[in-house]
């Protein structure tokens, strides 16, 4: 798993360990469902969202599963645990018209790093890749003959993503050096997440009134706009690098909510 996942799980288990110490720190074989429910209640009362509580309980569940495999415990206190109901999630996206206006009308060439910024935003929007995946791209990952990008995703799983013709044209001059990272800072050093966040937010806020703007919102926009234009859900799943279809199906709910808004315009509503 990624360093971020490792850090998150370690933090969750550290919090659970701290809670157990406040209630007498039962040994693993003495752990009961009531201990886990007590921790859940404390987390919710502190104002933590149901989604965050789900993540923390998942960390504890994974630890206890490992402990059973190792023979440290025999019982499963998680068997009687029901996690809080998650609120219905509607994914936000940047309207396609806003993004079309950005790429068509912004004077990229008038800004010192404008052309490189344009490449970064267009890569996000036409591939749907994650921020970490874009930062990790190498020149060798681009195949202009086959019009594909080789992307290394979560758990080092690799996948091929088709390259949009406009993006291929913009990337071609960058491949002359043939080695090293595809995108860099103006001084040649590697990109870092905060730099990319600032760039994406700056440009998106010029052309959109969306409440949230980020590289991940461009990923959402990519998937939503593909689905709205008739793309196959399984194909979108493969391009995004999702391991399960349920992660991709959130975009179908997003599209259906928009359909309901359109339907409200019917004269017999």
Concise account of the structure shown:
This protein is 54% helix and 4% strand. With 269 residues, it is mainly α.
Please provide a written account of the structure.
This protein has 269 residues and is mainly alpha-helical. It has two domains: 3-80, DNA polymerase, domain 1 (Orthogonal Bundle), CATH 1.10.150; 96-263, hpI Integrase, Chain A. It has helices spanning 3-22, 33-45, 50-69, 96-105, 114-127, 131-135, 165-171, 193-207, 215-228, 233-240, 245-248, 250-263, and strands at 142-143, 148-152, 158-162. A three-stranded antiparallel β-sheet has the order 1-2-3, with no helix packed on it.
The main pleated sheet reads as:
3 strands, antiparallel
| Total count of helical runs of at least 4 residues | 12
Basic shape = globular
By CATH reckoning, the class of the largest domain would read: Mainly Alpha
Sheet with most strands: strand arrangement: 1-2-3
Full CATH superfamily name of the largest domain: Intergrase catalytic core
What structural class do helix, strand and pairing data support?
mainly alpha
| Count of individual domains | 2
